[in-house]
């Protein structure tokens, strides 16, 4: 089971307490009525789906109830950073593949 | 250490399970509130309530028969055994008149179970997946989490005593799993 650090509770909790919230840092357009259908569809549906580091929203739904953002490596499924909603995305590159951490086994 | 003047006065708990080194009981009704607001409102609420609202994550503050549990950065659970919910609500509404907040009476929504005894940790860990070792979950810590599929608020009252706050409709499910789990200990 994944352990996820909640930036509000400041503890690691099992994945079961969380809900995935899709890609982070997607701002709703200021005036949707001025967009073309293509631009609106782009906002609604198009996601980056990278192989590597992805910024995504998570909600600690069975804990403090807060949304926060996380950087996760979609190759290794490791969380590289968590940060509160509204904070800028940390500048972190995907680490070189390494042996699992001896302490956490991940 | 079931010192709770909050959850149980003498003789008014109802046993669900009694085994050597293990006791699960239903507690008496309490006045309960879900409070939401910013830190300024929380400060005023604490002064009016009589137990200050903790600002530290996962903390609980207990003052005799009242307690305030941190649930989120702007959310607390307030418990009181010494006054009716209506009377508390009136007092707090007056004190918080000019501070935006939400104070919701959830007295009828929640019930609490006390899980006590040397086997309490192991019994809870049959369905709660948190590390309940005192080093990771010290006395006084309170958190919302899951008990199997039911959401609970778990509060460590003592070395061998926990309170499990849950929605009343989930209580039979949780009691059933506790009784079932105790058979396997």
Automatic annotation (TrEMBL), chain A:
It comes from the Bacteria. GO terms for biological process: tetrahydrofolate metabolic process. InterPro entries: SoxD, SoxD_sf. Coiled coil: none annotated. Residues 87-106 are annotated as: Disordered. GO terms for molecular function: sarcosine oxidase activity. This is Sarcosine oxidase subunit delta. NCBIfam families: soxD. Transmembrane segments: none annotated.
From TrEMBL, chain B:
Pfam families: SoxG. Transmembrane segments: none annotated. It comes from Stappia taiwanensis. SUPFAM superfamilies: Folate-binding domain. This is Sarcosine oxidase subunit gamma. Gene3D superfamilies: Heterotetrameric sarcosine oxidase, Probable tRNA modification gtpase trme, domain 1. Coiled coil: none annotated.
């Amino acid at each position: 089971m994944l352990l996820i650090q909640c930036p509000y509770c400041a503890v690691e909790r099992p994945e079961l307490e969380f809900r995935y919230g899709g890609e982070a840092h997607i701002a709703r357009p200021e005036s949707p009525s001025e967009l073309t259908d293509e631009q609106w569809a782009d906002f609604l549906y198009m996601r980056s789906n990278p192989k590597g580091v992805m910024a995504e929203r998570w909600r600690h739904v069975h804990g403090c109830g807060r949304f926060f953002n996380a950087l996760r490596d979609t190759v290794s499924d490791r969380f590289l950073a968590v940060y509160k909603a509204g904070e800028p995305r940390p500048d972190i590159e995907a680490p070189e593949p390494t042996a699992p951490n001896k302490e956490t086994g991940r | 250490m079931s010192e709770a003047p909050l959850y149980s006065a003498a003789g008014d708990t109802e046993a669900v399970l009694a085994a050597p080194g293990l006791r699960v009981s239903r507690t008496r009704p309490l006045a309960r509130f879900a409070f939401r607001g910013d830190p300024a409102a929380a400060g005023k609420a604490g002064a009016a309530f009589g137990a200050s609202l903790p600002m530290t994550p996962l903390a609980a503050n207990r003052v005799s028969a009242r307690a305030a549990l941190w649930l989120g950065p702007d959310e607390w659970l307030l418990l009181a055994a010494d006054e009716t919910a209506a009377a508390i609500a009136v007092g707090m509404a007056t004190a918080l008149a000019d501070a935006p907040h939400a104070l919701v009476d959830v007295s009828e929504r929640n019930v609490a179970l006390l899980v006590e005894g040397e086997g309490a940790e192991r019994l809870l860990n049959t369905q709660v997946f948190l590390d309940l070792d005192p080093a990771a979950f010290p006395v006084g810590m309170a958190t919302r989490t899951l008990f199997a599929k039911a959401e609970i608020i778990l509060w460590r009252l003592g070395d061998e005593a926990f309170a499990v706050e849950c929605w009343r409709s989930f209580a039979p499910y949780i009691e059933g799993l506790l009784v079932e789990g105790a058979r396997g200990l």
